[in-house]
Design brief:
The protein is an all-alpha fold. The protein is built from 16 helices and no strands.
């Protein structure tokens, strides 16, 4: 009888010891700062087990490094919406096969259209570089006009009120406009045919982008990403082929004023992947001008890629002012978030 009592007491002690850590657990927020604290706590716990499980510890360490890299490039979410956590990762992994097929179809159509336009430009402007750049910059700024037009329409209907999108897209159009002014100063618009072709392609492109953006913002943003990616590659090839010659040529006045002026708010605004005041170009010659234009196109690509995830775009300046926004209560209602006109109409009816 005494032995049985001692056995029961031992089992109870072990049960108490096992259950004790569970009592001390507290819910953890999925904010970036708490995730970092939790990550450090887990890292220290794994270090204690390294001698016992060397292989497992090595694998865990590699996984932790990957998480840190992914977090550093994670797009900001809108005020009032929690950052993506494990639940959203699980839900995203269970995306239907039909939706995946739709995304592939959209991207396939975009790539086909972009390649078709590139072949036309290659044929018409094989030996006329500045004229090609003029046409390209005239076309490249059109999507941002289209995005803002549809966003203003949604805002009027009370469907989609996102000040950050309007700010960033206007800043992008402002950047592309200065690219265009630079090409004009270099003589890219000297031929009537070039102006006629660029303006008519831009007009068609505007209405096409408005239609795409109404039906599928994701497809419209991806198409713009394809255009900006081509622009980056075009300027990169030009720099490699003519770099030494460009270093001996003066920079246009408009480029010096835009990149080195005192008011660079809009210059920082379209670069959503970096904090404001972290990029300040130095313009000494024409090579520096095209180098910065190429880098601008890379920033446009990053912004267009971020836009393809609903609600992931934030103004760089708005991120800094998050605390002030929260105090003022300027939070967009969840019901105002919609993707495309079909989703907006559905939510306006059901809400």
């Amino acid at each position: 009888m005494a032995a049985a009592t001692m056995a029961i007491s031992g089992i109870s002690s072990r049960m108490l010891a096992i259950s004790q850590p569970l009592v001390t657990l507290r819910p953890v927020s999925y904010s970036s700062s708490h995730r970092l604290l939790c990550h450090r706590h887990l890292s220290s716990s794994r270090l204690l087990l390294r001698n016992k499980h060397r292989v497992q510890a090595t694998i865990l360490k590699e996984d932790e490094e990957k998480v840190v890299v992914e977090e550093s490039f994670k797009a900001e979410t809108f005020t009032g919406k929690e950052p993506l956590g494990e639940e959203s990762n699980t839900s995203s992994s269970s995306t239907s096969a039909f939706e995946s097929w739709i995304i592939k179809l959209e991207q396939g159509v975009n790539v086909f259209l972009t390649d078709s336009v590139i072949k036309i430009l290659d044929t018409l402007y094989r030996d006329r570089t500045y004229a090609r750049f003029f046409v390209l910059e005239t076309i490249a700024r059109v999507p941002y006009f289209a995005f803002m037009s549809v966003l203003h329409m949604y805002e009027t209907f009370g469907w989609w009120r996102r000040a950050d999108y309007l700010k960033v897209h206007f800043a992008e159009s402002w950047n592309e406009m200065h690219h265009l002014l630079i090409m004009e100063e270099l003589g890219g618009n000297s031929w009537w045919f070039d102006r006629f072709l660029a303006q008519h392609i831009a007009t068609f492109y505007y209405f096409m982008t408005v239609f795409l953006y109404i039906i599928s913002p994701r497809m419209a943003y991806h198409f713009s990403e394809c255009v900006e990616s081509h622009a980056f590659e075009t300027y990169d090839k030009f720099l490699k082929a003519s770099g030494e010659e460009l270093k001996n040529m003066p920079a246009p006045d408009i480029a010096v004023k835009y990149y080195t002026g005192s008011d660079l708010y809009l210059f920082d605004e379209f670069q959503t992947s970096r904090a404001p005041n972290t990029r300040r170009p130095v313009i000494e010659n024409l090579y520096d001008v095209f180098l910065n234009i190429r880098d601008d196109e890379a920033e446009h690509c990053k912004t267009m890629k971020a836009c393809q995830t609903l609600g992931s775009l934030r103004s760089p300046h708005s991120i800094i002012e998050d605390d002030a926004e929260e105090e003022s209560g300027c939070v967009v209602p969840e019901g105002a978030h919609c993707e495309g006109i079909v989703d907006c109409i559905k939510k306006s009816i059901t809400s």
